[in-house]
C-alpha cells in the first residue's frame, strides 16, 4: 500500500505593513512557529531516530565541524552551496570613487543566501493557511 504524501502547511498571522504609508489596510504575514528554532542537535536526533548506526554525539560533532568549515569558506571569501542554499560573501554600501577605502560606517560585510533548485521545489509543495490578525 503506497504511503500518503505528507502535506506541508505554513500557518500565518497577518499584521499591518508599516512600510507602506499610503495604505493603512495592507498586511504582511508572519509564519506561526509551532516549535523553537531547530538546531544541529535536532538534526542529530532526527538522523538517529531513522535508525542510524551513529550516536547523536557523533553526528553533532560532524555537523559542528561542517559549520566551522562553511564559516571558514565564507571568511576566505568563497561561496558555499549545499542541498538547500548557496551562501555568497558580499560587501554592501556605496564607494564615492574607485580609490575609496572600506569604511565601517558606510560599508557592511554580509552574505547573500539563495535557495537551490531543491529548496525552491520544496517551497512549491507548501500551502499557506491564514489564521487571522496577529495579536499585539
Characterise the protein shown here.
The chain is of the alpha+beta class. It has helices at 40-49, 56-75, 117-124, and strands at residues 8-16, 27-31, 80-81, 85-92, 108-115, 126-133. The protein has a three-stranded mixed beta sheet. The protein starts with 7 loop residues before the first strand and ends with a strand.
Radius of gyration: 21 Å
Order of helices and strands: EEHHEEEHE
Class based on secondary structure composition and strand pairing: alpha+beta
Q: What is the 3D form?
A: flat
Largest sheet: 3 strands, mixed
> Mean pLDDT score, rounded?
93
Ranges where pLDDT stays below 50 over 5 or more residues in a row are: none
User: Number of helical runs?
Assistant: 3
Beta-strand content bin: 25-35%
How do the strands of the widest beta sheet line up side by side?
A: 2-1-6
Q: How many β-strand runs?
A: 6
Intertermini distance: 47 Å
Query: What is the helix fraction of residues, given as a range?
Result: 25-40%
Helices and strands in order, then pairings?
Layout: E1 8-16, E2 27-31, H1 40-49, H2 56-75, E3 80-81, E4 85-92, E5 108-115, H3 117-124, E6 126-133
Parallel strand pairs: 1-6
Antiparallel strand pairs: 1-2, 3-4, 4-5
Helix pairs in contact: 1-2
Amino acid at each position: 500500500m503506497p504511503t500518503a504524501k505528507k502535506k506541508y502547511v505554513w500557518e500565518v498571522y497577518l499584521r499591518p505593513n508599516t512600510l507602506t504609508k499610503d495604505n493603512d489596510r495592507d498586511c504582511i504575514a508572519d509564519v506561526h512557529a509551532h516549535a523553537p528554532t531547530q538546531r544541529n542537535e535536532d538534526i542529530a536526533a532526527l538522523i538517529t531516530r531513522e535508525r542510524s548506526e551513529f550516536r547523536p554525539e557523533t553526528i553533532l560533532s560532524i555537523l559542528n565541524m561542517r559549520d566551522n568549515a562553511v564559516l571558514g569558506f565564507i571568511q576566505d571569501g568563497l561561496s558555499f552551496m549545499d542541498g538547500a542554499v548557496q551562501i555568497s560573501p558580499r560587501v554592501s554600501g556605496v564607494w564615492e570613487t574607485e580609490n575609496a577605502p572600506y569604511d565601517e560606517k558606510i560599508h557592511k560585510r554580509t552574505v547573500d543566501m539563495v535557495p537551490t533548485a531543491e529548496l525552491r521545489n520544496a517551497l512549491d509543495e507548501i500551502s499557506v493557511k491564514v489564521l487571522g490578525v496577529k495579536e499585539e
